[in-house]
């Protein structure tokens, strides 16, 4: 069997072209605030004493609504918050700013906290995932 250097060079060039000009297989993480964006940290929930107080979006806090506070996500963003300890999750709308305690990523309304079964603990580890970005009005 005779070695053909032209065929070898052509095959190597073809393979190198595939590697260089084919998009990578690694997926890019969703951008901040976009569908699929996730954060891991701790969640806490609002006290009943805050009932009726104005939130950062101008609305009044109502413990029965499934709302939440996040430091930077736009108001109106819908997120799914999951408690990995028990597997329970809840969908909430961002309506306020906070929490401003290190390690905490989201403050939940009482109704949302109840859904995650976190009322007794007060603060629990969670994963938060954007399921619907805020509308740009």
TrEMBL record:
SUPFAM superfamilies, per database record: Barwin-like endoglucanases (SSF50685)
Broadest EC class assigned to this enzyme: lyase
Taxonomy, superkingdom: Bacteria
Pfam families (alphabetical): DPBB_1
Annotated signal peptide: 1-28
Domain RlpA-like protein double-psi beta-barrel: 38-127
Entry EC no(s): 4.2.2.-
Record keywords, A-Z: Cell wall biogenesis/degradation, Lyase, Signal
HAMAP family named in the record: RlpA
Family according to the record: Belongs to the RlpA family.
Function: Lytic transglycosylase with a strong preference for naked glycan strands that lack stem peptides.
PANTHER family for this protein: ENDOLYTIC PEPTIDOGLYCAN TRANSGLYCOSYLASE RLPA, ENDOLYTIC PEPTIDOGLYCAN TRANSGLYCOSYLASE RLPA-RELATED
UniProt-recorded name of the protein: Probable endolytic peptidoglycan transglycosylase RlpA
Organism: Rufibacter roseus
Organism placement in taxonomy: Bacteria, Pseudomonadati, Bacteroidota, Cytophagia, Cytophagales
